[in-house]
Write a structure and sequence with these properties.
The structure is a single chain. By secondary structure, the chain is an all-alpha fold. The chain has eleven helices and no strands. The protein is globular and about 55 Å long. The two termini are 36 Å apart. The relative contact order is 0.19. The N terminus and C terminus are likely disordered.
Amino acid sequence: MHEQRSQPGRRWADWAGRPRFWMGLALLIGAGGAAWAMAGWPDQVSPLDGRILLVALLVAVNLGLTALLLWLMVLSLSPRPRPGLGRMWLVVCLSEWLAWIPLAGFAGRAGLLKKLHGVSIRGSVWTGAVTLGLGLIVALIALGVWLAVKRGGLGELAILATALALVGVLSILTGRATGPLRPGQERAGPLFHPMAWLPLRLSDAAVHGLRWWLVLGMVGASISIPAAMMIASTGLLVRMLKLTPGGLGIREWTLGALTVAAGSIDPGLALTAAVIDRIIELPVTLAAGYLGMRRLGRGSDAAQAEPAGGDDDQAEEVPGV
């Protein structure tokens, strides 16, 4: 009993001692300070701007697409009992919330999937590695499209058609690389096939790109859609590396630097947009995470669960969804 009562204190002590969090917070504060010094607070930014609500809704869409991708990957591991999409959305929301307090989101998610659905830690590591690989492919495709549009020579429709054809080929290769389907999967429909994973990751990156384009517009900056997609997909990849919780600080500097390089935009405005995007995103993810905690009935204690087993059950933080 005494040990249980002392756990919260130990958790917050662990949290306060996490150098990655403090590094990310310092980088975020530095980004905000640099933005203020270079550009001040743009007159165009207003708390009544309707685009703020739209960006917040797109954050929720990103959470939904992430949950859908993770759900399809977990189903390929034949979990027992089989989770529903709603349950997986709650798990994703809770893991986003856990990333800001004692444990990393991946460890909490892996613990929940192990405890609730019998998914091994090795299986969770596999989903994280595959998702990171998909993110890298999406970032490279977005970079190629942006470079093709920038150099000209081909029409935008031709570039888009080429990119979609490439996505189709890579989706087929992804499906083959993941191995044979589990029994019954072939009758579950095309959405449940591994070939759907890359288009889903691409859709998630596209929503991130639209978010970035809207936020830049809020500060009075203009950039092309292909450039916004390239910048956002790279920022998403940096976030997936989990160098800091939620890519805190590192994502802001990455978005700002790439935007300046790609669009010749004032550095102060680019950093201001990155900070605003974080300000809009954070309440949405924390509120969704709190909902996930309440609905799953586990809270942050679920992230501490270490299922019995051998080396396969040793959860370490890895990049991923």
